[in-house]
Amino acid sequence: MRKLLVYLKDYKKETVLAPLFKMLEATFELFVPFVMANIIDYGIGGADDGAVLRSGAILVALGLIGLLCSITAQYFAAKAAVGFSTKLKHALFDHIQSLSFTEIDTLGTSTLITRMTSDVNQVQNGVNMVLRLFLRSPFIVFGAMIMAFLIDVKAALIFVVTIPLLAVVVFGIMMITMPLYKKVQAGLDAVLLTTRENLTGARVIRAFHKEAEETERFEEKNVALTNLQLFVGKLSALTNPVTYIIVNVATIVLLYTGAVRVDEAIISQGQVVALVNYMSQILVELVKLANLIILITKALACANRIEGILEVTSSMQWGEMAATPEIAEGIAASVEDGEAVREADRMAAVVQNGNTAPAVEFDHVHLAYEGAGGESLSDIHITVKKGQTVGVIGGTGSGKSSLVNMIPRFYDATKGTVRIDGRDVKTYGMEELREKVGIVLQRPVLFRGTIRENLLWGRGDASDEELWEALSRAQAKEFVEAKEGGLDAFVAQEGRNLSGGQRQRLTIARALVGNPEILILDDSASALDYATEAALRTAIRELPKETTVFIVSQRASSIRHADQIIVLEDGETAGLGTHEELLAGCEVYQEIYYSQFPKE
Questions:
Q1: How far apart are CA 541 and CA 476, in angstroms?
Q2: Superfamily assignment of 2-310 in CATH?
Q3: Across the chain, what does the average pLDDT equal?
Q4: Which CATH code is given to the segment(s) 332-368+377-596?
Q5: Staple partner for 73: which of 21, 23, 32, 105, CB 3.0–4.6 Å?
Q6: pLDDT digits (tens, 9 = 90+) for 8-38
């Protein structure tokens, strides 16, 4: 939790004023039993109506001032807590955006959503209540004990015994429940994961008539969470009855002691009432403190979970190094490793020769995903010239997407080097690399808004003319023109109001808007009919000559006209060449091709 307090630094004034005004309210509240004692002893006991009125006016004044202080304190506490949670959400979201796909895959989407929403809200409530009550309750407890000592030392000794006993109960329950609340939040993650899977895959579940099984799976997770919450709730619920028993027993002892002291004329009846009132104040404040501690326990558990995300560092560090001879020479001079020296010399040669290097080069690349049992790609060595169209084909799980995902650096090679324009992709800044590479992923993702807003993700300053040109190339112009509003037509979340083919064509157009030097189409035409796909291929071939295109597809017809075709099998290069060369000498390509076209 301490690491998160940095987000309160802009609310120092509020974090001081909120507890300060609460302390003032508590101070005025401590004077109430004293005033009541005066009313009983001097007003009622002495039959002095004036004393009753004066003391009553003081009570009203104390109440109004206390109310004003309480409202002011709650205003400052709420302002600080809401501002804190806003900054924390921004920081957490920025941090998640900075993580590589490896960390996001490892953490899981459901737990990230829970920590961005439920956990942050719990921490916000914890901060709010701490500022309001964390100092007020102990202040009244110890203040009431001091006031009791001012009335009568012997009677006040009861407070000395009662307060530590209550503290043991409250803090003992807190220590037991704190780790259990962490398990509750983990259970909430599991329920959210199941819910998200079911809502995302609702159509698949209904298509296979698995509603009953999925309902049972959800109930299993939900019942486990419910049972854990009930167990923790029962432990937490012990706080109130146990504290009431202790305080009520203490009150009985106090009344007996007070009665004896009154009979001995040591203290007055009004002072006994004041002592009982102070004991009642202690009871109320300790119950508040107990509930506050339960809330703080939840908040601390959630804060630790949030800290856990913030402490995760990205395995992918972005470089801003420019490929200049001076830098290359500096690397060669400072690094003794022979491979690093050769890489630096090669970079310097590329720059001095006017950067005639290949558009993309896979230099003995290996890739293994985090936690995977083996490599997804092994010893890939491929060179792609500028302006070439490259087809990537292979069976399911052969590593096609893994190969192209290393070009925009979604994943880093575990061995070997991926180069763009002769430079290691690790030396590029993120913005520089994203401007060079445009990618259309397997699953088309559109965001809620308009068609124009989605297309402008490709390049924010693109004109309408450029947007229509990209739509035309992507074979999407016709259906966009037919929609009411054209470019300003509404797009639902994930493009649910569009067909699969329309979504794919819009995502292709979005990539084309950026005029990338390297365009990657990762099985992005699977929902298109053959005629539309053929028209799309023709439009792609008409891109500027310097545009290098990677087409990943299961269809041999999609890549047969490519300048170079990469055939993958089990993460290894099974063939490399043109359609005719592979059809003549690559068994894997022959098997794929003849499974789709009759053998002549």
A1: 17
A2: ABC transporter type 1, transmembrane domain (1.20.1560.10)
A3: 85
A4: 3.40.50.300
A5: 21
A6: 888 989 999 999 999 898 888 888 888 888 7
